Amino acid sequence: MRRLIIFFPLLVLAGGFSLSADEKTAPVDVVALIEGGSFRGHVLSVTEDGRLRFRPGESESVTELNVTAVRHIALNTERNLPGDYLKRRTILHLSDGSRITGSIEDWRADSVVIKNEYCAATILKCGITDISFTTDSETFLPYNSGKSDVIVLRENPDEKVECEILSISDLHVRYRVKGEERSAGFNAVCAVALAGSEKPVGKGAKNGWYAMVRVINRDRLVGTLAEMDKSALTLLTRYAGLVSLKRNLLDKVAFSDSPSFSYGNLLVTYCSNGVVAMYDSSGKRLWKYGKCSSPWDAVELPDGDILVAPYNQGRSLWLLSNKGEDVKKIAQNLSEPISVVLLENGNYLTSEYSHACLVEVTPNGAIKQRYLQGRMSNGVHIELARDDCVVTANGGNRVTKWSLKSNKVVWRKDGLQGAYGAVELGNGCIAVMEYNIKKVRVFDKNGNEKWSVNTNYNHYGVGVTPDGNALIPVMQRRNNRNVTVIIEYSPDGKKLREIPLQEEVMRISSIRQR
């Protein structure tokens, strides 16, 4: 049972606190509450006993919240990171749901030392399910309970070679097969699975505030929050003990009762019914807004407000409150905005259906730049991809991945049947919702189909979690009625969980999760 929101106002010292120059210019934090609403300002600290100290806005007073009232903390929401931030592609997946990108500094008998911009950690090998090396995609291997390590090479990605991994360093993997020592560069290796790794596990006893910490590059770490101050967040983790994370490089802290690979509410639009709705992770509807005409897409902003692209209401984006209430219209000189995403710089990227282009819009509604003018062939859905790319679906036979820097096509798939939605998954594959055949198909970088799911209904949209998993709407028959179920799949097609929506079956045009 959720406890009531409890606020602990702190006494302000005589003369008040003075904001330092760094605090006045620091990126803004957003504290989102479980019961709705949010605060913008600066999180000063979170203690092990669940007390969050917060300075709202430019106020010089300090307020305390009970962490039981907090859904998540979005950190550093207005920062600008360097373009080469966290581009290294050695990726460790742990059985507790953590994902860590960095460079391996030391390969030990029972542990691995990894270092990156936000932390350094010594990780027990038994907790590592697989290690991925590719630069353009991310390979996932099942946990390896056998006695031999496994390596998968790019030249034969369907073969798992039993071996002994000797070391991983200097952009090379050294391994031994049947007594013969070999070496392969990272660009030649898809993934490695170490012997004796633990099966994906749940959390242990909750001896504090269990949290999932997300980094801007999709890394995540799960554990018990030990402490957070102005400079660092400390987690007690299952496989690395106490890990100190540099706070200015973190993205979000979500408080959770389980280390699910994904978390957060589901924001769903139903274009045919004019509905935008928010559901919790169990499928319970939290609110519903029904005054939009053809809301093809919506995205949750860091402060909890909802930005909607209402295609049939033609020239503006709509901004709803975090409880689904009408707030205002912005960017009122657009032409049929039909899809929208949030850029890392805080601006919005929307697709203009009439002009067949992408438009970057600032939060105050000003148009900053247009991309791909006249080249998109009626982009009805857009989704951000890695390396400053965007995936577009044209509602017909084509899905295209574009580079926003070069305005060039990076990937394209033709011959589709009603491609209204498309997303890039964590391994670089593209999942496409094909309306005409009631199916989601997943294609690799060569355009080959890897796996598919029948949706049993004509939906328009497919979603992707912050961790790179697919969110696919499927109609099922339960208790003598039709139910829309959002099913989460890993990038390689493994079913992870089902979320039956507390809703009549309607045609979904977009699914987003934060």
Concise overview:
This protein is mostly beta strands and about 525 residues long. It is built from 1 helix and 45 strands. The chain has 3 domains: about 70 residues, Roll (SH3 type barrels); about 100 residues, no CATH class; about 230 residues, TolB, C-terminal domain (Neuraminidase, 6 Propeller), CATH 2.120.10.
Detailed description of the structure:
The protein is mainly β and 514 residues long. The protein has three domains: 7-74, SH3 type barrels (Roll), CATH 2.30.30.100; 90-193, no CATH class; 286-513, TolB, C-terminal domain (Neuraminidase), CATH 2.120.10. The chain has one helix and 45 strands. The strands form eight sheets. It has an eleven-stranded antiparallel β-sheet with strand order 1-5-4-3-2-6-21-17-18-19-20, with no helix packed on it. A ten-stranded antiparallel β-sheet has the order 10-9-8-7-11-16-12-13-14-15, with no helix packed on it. The protein is globular and about 70 Å long. It starts with 6 loop residues before the first strand and ends with a strand.
